[in-house]
Amino acid sequence: MRKILIFDTTLRDGEQAPGNSMHASEKLEMSAQLERLGVDVLEAGFAAASPGDFASVKEIAEARKNLIVCSLSRCKKEDIDASYEALKSALVAPRIHLFLATSPVHMQYKLKMNEDQVLERIAESVRYTKKLVSDVQFSCEDAMRSERSFLIKAIQTAIDNGATTINVPDTVGYSYPEEIEDTFRFILSNVKNADKVIFATHCHNDLGLAVANSLAAIKAGACQLECTVNGIGERAGNASLEEVCMALKTRREYYDADTGIDTRQIYTTSQLLSSITGVKIPPTKPLVGKNAFAHESGIHQHGVLANKATYEIIDPSSLGIVQNNIVLGKHSGKHAFKDYLTGMGVDVADDELNMLFEKFKNIADKKKQITHKDIEYLISHTNTTQVKKSVTLNNYGITTLKGGPALATITLNTMDGIKAGNATGDGPIDAAFKAINAITGRDFKLIDWSVSAITEGEDALGAATLRLNYNGVEVTGRGISTDTVEASLLAYLNGCNKLFDMVP
Ligand code: KIV
Ligand code: ZN
To answer: 2-277, what's its fold?
Structure first.
């Protein structure tokens, strides 16, 4: 059975899509979870894109011990140098990922280069990169709309000059499975030394075919699969990691291939990303959506009760989905709490454990029973990676009258002591957020805000998630509490602290 390498680009292709930007500490947290998930290569960013991207690639490369960290680069010396500088202190030998477009439309209108110039640029860029690192990936951007004969020349040039992985992306999600399969077979039988390099597939989802196309490429001989958690990415996204990996695992006998992914980490990884970005997972999303294993109709319920195999092709526990409910209560000690986290595959350092346990105790004081869902949200809405807390909530009072404005009085703990502010607004949340802006002196703009109950019942925990923008930088804020107003205030302050850090 072939082992398919998983190249995760959640933090690069995924993060560059609107609404998915992350704070450096969140990228680091996500990279640790991707390591637990077992990805082989992690594309941590595009080091030359900004000082923030550079710092984040470097931080991840210096933290991850069990995977290859990679940085994207255009075929430009300054990009390659930036990637190298960010990666040179990596714990595991790093990869530089070069790309250059090879389709007629990209070469003519975007690059303004002819075929010879493109080949020359590929040759010199791969040669230059190869002097810096031994692991060089080259991608023919828009490969699936490139002339086949030119595609072969571009790939051959990259291999002849030292590339070790060749990626053949469907950049605009235009292809269909039979075409991709045929293209890979054509490449593998027409490129010299094809057996000396790894061929990769990277499919976008513009026609909803990214997963099917990726699987077709594997069938034809691709050994590296490029994908993102929850399928996030440019436009309609990339192939979803959980879907391709579970398709391979579930239909292993057909594909005769599998990955090294620890599928029990899939659900936690998906939830973590969703809570970091604030982008909700659609209920019908395969494997990780709320309804993926829900059986509503009587006939289905009857079948599942008689034998799960009637309507379930995958055991949800193989994705790390825990379906039992009440798990802990206010008398549970730190050991029981830690054991429970370990059982969920969550590995926390002592200081993080203390922080989570304190929050757990606060919630347990207010709620009779703590469910698995509560613990999941507790973890995902608690910033275990440290964002400096420039402001924290001290107290609040809000009054609201039907038909009139709401009035909020907020006090915050700041670097300069406790500060208070008042504001009126269209409703309690608007007034409270305005009061925080008045105290901080910053005009933070609320882009999106939602509160949801984590579990059912009167004492349910409320989870607030919002997006905040300041001077063009956008972050997610998260907060949980049994009181939805407090959850919203905590989420707002979580976002403010990230922005204080990113836009000093
Ligand atoms: O979609 C694409 O072609 C890319 C390349 C940079 C590999 O993301
Ligand atoms: Zn892409």
So the answer is: TIM Barrel (3.20.20)
59-114 pLDDT tens trace: 999 999 999 999 999 999 999 999 999 999 999 999 999 999 999 999 999 999 99
Tell me, using a 6 A CB cutoff, whether residue 43 lines ligand 1: no
Pocket perturbation via mutation, ligand 1, pick of 139, 140, 166, 180 by most ligand atoms within 8 A of CB: 139
Q: How far is the CA of 395 from the centre of ligand 2 (A)?
A: 46
**Residue located nearest, by CA, to atom 1 of ligand 1:** 171
For residue 70, the SS3 value is strand
What is the topology classification, in CATH, of domain 391-502? Answer: Double Stranded RNA Binding Domain (3.30.160)
- Contact in structure between 100 and 49 (CB atoms under 8 Å): no
Secondary structure E strands in 325-401: 326-329, 369-371, 392-399
What is the 169 CA–ligand 1 centroid distance (Å)? 6
Q: State pLDDT tens for residues 135-167.
A: 999 999 999 999 999 999 999 999 999 999 999
Closest ligand to C-alpha of residue 237 is 2
Cα separation, 220 vs 164, in Å, equals 19
